[in-house]
Design a protein that fits this description.
β1, α1 (about 15-25) and β2 (about 30-35) form a beta-alpha-beta unit. It is built from eleven helices and ten strands. It has two domains: about 5-95 and about 210-260, 3-Layer(aba) Sandwich (Rossmann fold); about 95-205, Rossmann fold. It has helices at about 15-25, 45-60, 75-85, 95-105, 120-125, 125-135, 145-150, 160-175, 190-195, 205-220, 245-255, and strands at about 5-10, 30-35, 70, 90-95, 110-115, 140-145, 180, 205, 235-240, 260. It is globular. The chain is about 45% helix and about 15% strand. By secondary structure, it is α/β, with parallel strands linked by helices. α1 (about 15-25) packs across α10 (about 205-220) and α4 (about 95-105) packs across α6.
Length: about 260
């Protein structure tokens, strides 16, 4: 199984930031990516529907012989990860636990801001996991629904994006947060802007990088790292395909995505 591909899925193309981070950290791994672009966003759906979609996504990847599945979607991780891990035999990794571990790696973290989709904030998954692991944390979780469309529009350094960031982050900064957790896989593309936006002393934690690091740890522990030293291949499957998604894929990966295939679940 070592040379079998990794499976990664998201409700759209945001999970390609996780693919990019995994490629940088584990360049020999083959990856099969599924973006459920026909049914994006998951964040506005009911928990039952999210779980149904997530199981369909996992079965698609398992049919392609993957050795591990990465749920590169915060909303799907929040609502579906336990049921996925219970049902399937392969290791299934979500994005929430790695983000929580990265926040808590700093013993000085006391006031944590979290920005995410409405569905992720509403699930309380991050808030619950952080509070269980460290008592006394002060948490400020804010839905930031405008950021995903702004990122997809490539308005990363646009006045509208700056205005949205001020709206979402100023109340947190006024409350003295020392850590900001980006709990959506679209948000790592905003890191250059956020690095200038945030005052000194506020640590930035993004779910894509932390998830990739966790994937490497898990594959090492399970002796599932690819044996061959080669350039890993990437297959991208989308449930809806348009020119926009090809452009987005290129932007999220910072390279040509190659061939993108349209599939039905």
């Amino acid at each position: 199984m070592r040379n079998a591909p990794l499976g990664i899925f998201d409700s759209g193309v945001g999970g390609l930031t996780v693919v990019r981070a995994v490629q940088q950290l584990l360049p020999s791994e083959d990856i099969v990516y599924l973006g459920d672009t026909a049914r994006v966003p998951y964040g506005s759906k009911s928990p039952e529907t999210i779980r149904q979609f997530a199981h369909e996504d996992v079965r698609f990847l398992l049919d392609r012989g993957v050795k591990t599945v990465v749920v590169a979607c915060n909303t799907a991780t929040a609502h579906a990860l336990p049921s996925l891990q219970e049902r399937y035999q392969v290791p299934i990794i979500g994005v929430i636990e790695p983000g929580v571990e990265a926040v808590l790696a700093d013993p000085q973290a006391q006031r944590v801001g979290i920005i995410a989709t409405r569905g992720t904030v509403r699930s309380h998954a991050y808030q619950h996991a952080l509070a269980l692991r460290r008592t006394g944390l002060i948490l400020h979780a804010t839905p930031a629904p405008l950021l995903v469309p702004l990122v997809e529009e490539d308005w990363l350094d646009h006045p509208s994006t700056h205005a949205a960031l001020h709206t979402y982050l100023d109340p947190m900064l006024d409350r003295g947060i020392d850590t900001l957790l980006l709990a959506c896989t679209h948000y790592p593309l905003l890191v250059p802007v956020l690095s200038k936006f945030l005052p000194d002393g506020v640590r930035l934690v993004d779910s894509a990088t932390t998830c990739a690091e966790h994937v490497k740890q898990e594959l090492t522990k399970l002796d599932l790292l690819a044996e061959e030293e080669k350039a890993g291949k990437l297959e991208i499957h989308l449930t809806d395909l348009s020119d926009q998604f090809e452009d987005l894929s290129r932007r999220f990966l910072a390279r040509s995505p190659g061939r993108i295939m349209r599939v039905s679940l």
